[in-house]
């Protein structure tokens, strides 16, 4: 039995029609073709022939131009003088001289890219997203970022082509005639009466495993933010304290009907004069759509006349102390029969295909008693 807070399934992957075409209200979500397990599972609900395969075009706005992401693999697209500036910066970085890797994020940016790229791109972009001191972020999550060596950067400039591995969504799928939320709507329909909509968590009796004073459970699988659970059940003080230290940010998704004038599917904007940090040009990946949407930390979002959707829980924040906090919370939750899962259960900014794979694993583990 799945209890869903909203009127339709999908969470941050939901879509709604805006200006005659679908818009993904939780921000940009795409299906990475490399995750065969997740793709094959989702094709059971939306067949592969209803998806369009795209080769990723992601851009960074920097020094008055647009450069393919990741920057360090595509410096060759910039003027020669700018290439020399950035290459000199990377050459002086701590990772090149084999200095120890720092444990705080701002220090890592300088260690990895040198001061110039850190100051012009990495630090302003991340300040815009998180709106907090950047050195409060850890470095344990950086395996998610493209890892391009100085040699690969240099070779890309000399040969005028990208070197290094493509980041996530190098190739991705997006529905041909729908928004990304369509696959989850179909999955919900397939669940029938096993899916209960408009059912937020209102009470949780952990002693008797009763949810909302109605459903008795053998196992509770939770994908909701931990703060929401604190409001409806008694939790030990040290767990409540750990949950209280978890950090998240809200994101506003704002629609604009104009064309961005770029072939990019999405664009990263490090300019701190702009409140938003990313543009999604839906006309470049959604059939018969126009316009674009921006993603902005809600705490600094400016007034918007058109469509806006606010996601109160959008990004979990990878603070330095997060791994220890999550471990403490997980040890307690599993001891009382709650299996944490997904972005919020694990407090991890994961892509949707990873969340699908986690769901499959959790189901298999429960069926086999592991």
Describe the protein's architecture and organization.
It is a single chain. By secondary structure, the chain is α+β, with helices and mostly antiparallel strands. It has a domain at 70-159. The chain is 31% helix and 20% strand. The chain contains ten helices and 19 strands. It has helices at residues 36-43, 80-91, 105-130, 150-159, 182-191, 226-230, 237-245, 322-335, 342-345, 352-368, and strands spanning 2-3, 15-18, 21-24, 31-32, 51-55, 58-62, 65-68, 171-175, 195-196, 204-205, 210-211, 215-216, 220-222, 248-256, 266-268, 278-280, 292-297, 308-316, 338-340. It has a seven-stranded mixed β-sheet. A hairpin with a 2-residue loop joins strand 6 (58-62) and strand 7 (65-68). Helix 1 (36-43) crosses helix 10 (352-368), helix 2 packs antiparallel against helix 4 (150-159) and helix 7 packs antiparallel against helix 8. The chain is globular, with a radius of gyration of 22 Å. The two termini are 20 Å apart. 34% of the residues are buried. The mean pLDDT is 94.
Task: List the SSEs and their pairings.
Elements: E1 2-3, E2 15-18, E3 21-24, E4 31-32, H1 36-43, E5 51-55, E6 58-62, E7 65-68, H2 80-91, H3 105-130, H4 150-159, E8 171-175, H5 182-191, E9 195-196, E10 204-205, E11 210-211, E12 215-216, E13 220-222, H6 226-230, H7 237-245, E14 248-256, E15 266-268, E16 278-280, E17 292-297, E18 308-316, H8 322-335, E19 338-340, H9 342-345, H10 352-368
Parallel strand pairs: 1-9, 6-15, 13-19
Antiparallel strand pairs: 2-3, 4-8, 5-8, 6-7, 10-11, 11-12, 14-17, 14-18, 15-16, 16-17
Helix pairs in contact: 1-10, 2-3, 2-4, 7-8
